[in-house]
Protein: E3 ubiquitin-protein ligase RNF125
Organism: Drosophila mauritiana
Amino acid sequence: MFPSWLSLLHWKPLKMEGLRRAGDGIMPLDTIDLTTTDEERPVVRLLSDSNNGYYLCPICKSLLDQPVTTTCGHIFCKECLTTALDQLHYCPLCNMFVLDFFRIYF
């Protein structure tokens, strides 16, 4: 008999002691308030005002065409990011590993 088969003969159910999930009992370090108004976020307003209210793709330096975002949160044109990810699967800005991106609708 194989050792793994013998271990099945002496099987005992596991006892659940303590916390059941890895995140139980862990408090967040910070809370993000998504209900703030523009007056409370002057930095965001100033950044958008510097480009006349438009966000430019950091790859082609043009207005976004079919904007997409990576899992690390950077925003690019869909074509620019697709071309960049064909070469390497890393974010062009922060070099974080990227497998997929998501369409953004304004």
User: Anything to note?
Assistant: The beta strands are 67-70, 75-77, 101-103. The first strand starts at residue 67 and ends at 70.
